Amino acid sequence: MTKVTTTAVEQMIIQPPSRFYEDSSLPKPNISSLDEYKAMYEQSIKNPNKFWGDMAREVIDWDRDFSTVLQGSLQAADFAWFADGMLSPCYNVLDRHAIARPDATAIIYEADEPNQGRHITYRQLLADVCQCAGALASLGVGKGDRVAIYMPMIPAVVVAMLATIRLGAVHTVVFAGFSAESLADRVNDAGCKVVITSDVSYRGSKVIPLKNIVDKAVPNCPSVTNVLVFQRSAAPTASMVDGRDIWWQDIVPKFPRYIPNVSVSAEHPLFLLYTSGSTGKPKGVVHTTAGYLLGAHATCKYVFDLHPTDRMGCAGDVGWITGHTYIVYGPLMMGAATLVFESTPAYPDFTRYWSTVERHKLTQWYVAPTAIRLLQRAGESFVKHDTSSLRVLGSVGEPIAPENFMWYHDVVGKKSCAVADTYWQTETGSHIVAPISTVTPTKPGSATLPFFGIDLAIVDPLTGKELEGNDVEGVLAVKQPWPSAARTVWRGHDRYIDTYLKPYPGFYFTGDGAARDSDGYIWIRGRVDDVVNISGHRLSTSEIEAALMTHAAVAEAAVVGVPDELTGQAVNAFILLKDGFEVNAELEKELILTVRTQIGPFASPKKLIFSDLPKTRSGKIMRRILRKVLAGEEDQLGDVSTLADPKVVHDIIHAVHRAH
Ligand code: 6R9
C-alpha cells in the first residue's frame, strides 16, 4: 500500500461555515449533517432504484409515471433510467415555475458593458421561449431534429436552448469561439437542420462577427436549411442569404406567447455536446432527458445548497457542459435565478466578477481555477466589493492548487463561504466527486467525496483490478450507472464503448488518475496521460505544478514527462512568470528547490522553460502540444482548433529552442 502523499496545506481540514446553521437569515441547509449525507449516500448505492425513484417522483413533474427506475447495465452499455416515463423537459425548467412564481427572476443578464443587463422573470422567459419555439417549428423543426446554437452569452441563448427542447428537438451548442471549420464539423456530425446565431458578439468590448463565421461554415453543411440570426448589435451589418437567413427579431415576435410542450420519453435525447479527447475527432456526447435533469437538480440542491430563492452565478459559457448544467438546467429545474454573464473577469477591470456579485446579490459563484489564478495574480486589491451575499464558491474544470483554493476561501470568501472543488466531465452530466457544501469538511486540493449514486472505484491501471480501501492510487472509475451519465456518442456507440467501457472492463473509465487518502477523500491527479514516472515514482503533473505555483514568481505552470535514459521519464516544466519577475539563474534554482522540498528530489524538473501556455478556450492546458514540441514533432501537433490562442505555439517552440 502506498501512502498518498500530501503537502502541509493539503492536510488542512476546513469545516463548513458555522453561519450556515447560526444565521437565521440564511436558508436552511438542504443537508444539515455529515451523517445525513452518509446515510443518503449509502442508500443511493445500496438501493439506487428506491433512492432515485423517490427523488425523480419528487422533483420532476411527469406526464406519465415510470414503472422501472434503472434497467440494463454499464457493462452492456444499455442502461436506461425511468425508461417508460414521459415528461416535458421545458415544462420542468420553465412552465411550472412561471405558474407558481411568475414574477420570480429566471435570468440575470450581466451584459458585456456593466449596467446594460436586465432581469427576466419566469413569466417573460416562458413567453420568449414559446415564441421562439413557434418560429423554429415554422422552419420545420420537430421532435428529434437537431438544432445548432452558436451564440454569445445573452439571454437569447437560453431561450434558443429551451425553445428547442420544448419541441422535443435536440440542441447542440457550439462554443462561439470555435472556427468555421470546427462549427461545420459539429453541425455535419449532428445533421442539424437550423443554426441559431447572432450578428455579432461582444466580450471585453471586442466585437466578434459571429454571423460571418456561420456564413463560412454553412455552405459546407448540407443538412442546414435555415439560419436564425439574433440581432445583438444596435445597427446590424450582417449580410443575409435570401431564403436561408432570417432575423430573429423579424420572425420570433409573430408567434403566440404560449404553445404547448411536446412530451418525450425519459430516454429521449435532450442535447448533444461535442467534446474532444486528447486525440481524434470530437465526440457528440448524448445526454437524455429525465436522468440528466435529475442529476442537474440534485447536484445544484446538495453540492451548492441551491434554494429556489437563490441567485446562482456561474461565469462559464453555455458552450461547455458547465454552462448546460449549472447555468441553464440545474438552476432552472430548481426555479432559482441564474446569471448569464457576457463579459470577462478582466473587463472593464479585475473587479468585474465581484461587482457582478454585489450588483445581483449572488449566492453561489462558480468558475474555473484558471480565472481564480488570473485574479489572484492581479492582486487582492481588486476584491473590494460587497460579496457578503455569497455562501458557496465553486471550482471546476481542472485541479485547483491548494494555494489558489486558500486564496478563494480567504480573500473572496472572507473565510465564511464553503469552497466546493467539483470534479465531473461532459460525459458525467453533473458532479460526481464534490463536497456537500453545508456539511462536508474540505481539504484544499481534494474534490472530497463521491456524490449520491456514484459508486467510485480506484483501479490499478496495470491489472485493471479495483484497489479497495484507503491510501490507494490509480485511475478513477465508476462501477454502476448513474442517472446523468452520457448514454452514447452520437452516431458512434462503438466509440462510446471503446472510450469509456473497454479500457477497464466492468467500469466506466474517467480518463483521470486519482488517489483516495486515509480519510477516503479523493484527490484528482489529472488525466492519466499526464502521469509521469520518474525512477519508478509515479507522479501527477498537477502535483508538481501545484508545488511550483506556491513560488511567488509563478503565475502558471504546466509539467510534462519526457523520455529520459536514466530515469525513464524526466520532468520538464513550462512556467509563466507573474508580471515584474525576470528569468535568472537564482530564480531557476529557487524553483527547483521548491519542488525538491515539497515533493522530493526525484520530482525536480530537469528543464525549466519560460513561456506562455497552450490553453483551450475553457482554460485547460493542452499538454499534448508541449510534449510534441519537446519531442521536436512540432509538425505533428494534431488538432489545435480548441486552443484559445493558436499563436502561443510559436512562442513555445522558440522557448523550447532557447532552453536547449
Ligand atoms: C466539467 C468539465 C473534464 C475533465 C476531467 C478532468 C478535468 C474537471 C475537475 C477536473 C480536477 C476538478 N476536471 N473538474 N480535474 N479537479 N474539480 O470540466 O468537463 O470539459 O468534459 O472536462 O476536466 O480531467 O476529466 P470537461
Automatic annotation (TrEMBL):
Keyword presence, Ribonucleoprotein: no
MF terms in GO: acetate-CoA ligase activity; AMP binding; ATP binding
GO cellular component, one term: cytosol
Residues of the AMP-dependent synthetase/ligase domain: 95-482
One Pfam family here: AMP-binding
InterPro entries documented for this protein: Ac_CoA_lig (IPR011904), ACAS_N (IPR032387), AMP-bd_C (IPR025110), AMP-bd_C_sf (IPR045851), AMP-binding_CS (IPR020845), AMP-dep_synth/lig_dom (IPR000873), ANL_N_sf (IPR042099)
Reaction(s) the record says it catalyses: acetate + ATP + CoA = acetyl-CoA + AMP + diphosphate
UniProtKB keywords: ATP-binding, Ligase, Nucleotide-binding
Enzyme Commission number(s) from the entry: 6.2.1.1
The AMP-binding enzyme C-terminal domain, residue ranges: 543-620
EC top class named in words: ligase
Residues of the Acetyl-coenzyme A synthetase N-terminal domain: 37-93
Coiled-coil segments on the chain, per record: none
Domain of life: Eukaryota
GO BP: any one term: acetyl-CoA biosynthetic process
NCBIfam families in alphabetical order: Ac_CoA_lig_AcsA, PRK00174.1
Similarity field: Belongs to the ATP-dependent AMP-binding enzyme family.
Name of the protein described by the UniProt record: Acetyl-coenzyme A synthetase
Gene: acs1
